[in-house]
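User: Leucine-rich repeat protein (LRRP). Structure?
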Amino acid sequence: MPEPVVCATQETGTDGSNQVNKSICFLEVFLSMYALRCKEFAIEMNPRALQAAVAMQDAVDIAKRDLSDSDTTTRGVTYKLNGVPFGVSGSQALFPAFACMPLVKLDLNDCYLGDAGTRTLAEVMSTSSRCGTMIRDIHLSGVGIVDASSLTCVMTAAHQLELLDVSRNRIGTQPHGLAVLCASMHHHKSLREVNLGDNLISGSCVVTIRAIAEWVVCAGHDDVLHRIDLRFNTLGILREFGGVVIPSRTNLTHFIYGAHPLVDALFLNNTLEYFELYGNALSADVIDVLEAKLAVNRRTKKTIQKSHTQLTCNKG
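Assistant: Predicted structure:
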């Protein structure tokens, strides 16, 4: 389905010339698109979804009144809707309206989407040229994601994405979906922060641990990803031979640097600044090693930045 064309209205200036009114009414376009889809699925428009759209337009109007404000289509808009459960039809009705918006931030925390709703959202965002080139932050915490593989098309299409929050879901229960998501983030050119906290991610799953470790190593090749949040999972439990569960504090000689594969991965990454693993049943020794390496990374980057600044000043 082609994207609706969002047009600015024309104003007549004091000199008689036409000027572009930067207060583009995204609300009208959103409402017409949403109403059309609701009619197609024979459902009512969600009042809270409408309120969120009004708030989005209000923010645009406020920004327009700032004399220093640049073109709104360049700045983009934010859509925030929290705590609303969507069925499949509700997702299919609402999300296509995002395609015509120059979204820079989408916050749907605690809106139950499930895997079906997440796939619908991912398809819309990955096929929208506006979303693909403008979206910076995506917040999908507590939306009921189990299979994370549907998010890979968003990672591929959203070239400017800087933050992905998919915490408080159940992504860890589908290891292969998590592995596909991790692979899609290996060399993302703008992704700075990822939150996978509280996702039932277990260290006893070889597929999961390998996927995360490979992602951490690959991310170290580019100085882009600065923070990974994996708090409140169970990465401290490792499954060894015979199906016996062994805590990470047990001495295991087949790791290169420490008693956990994520320690090995971090030692091969010199750019990650924050690797949050609180609440994972990891031993204090493992945490100390990780924190020491992260401190080295932060100190090294600070030194490099300082040297670069001095070099730039000297050239000037």
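The chain has two domains: 1-166, 170-176+197-316. Residues 1-23, 240-246, 248-254 have pLDDT under 50 and may be disordered.
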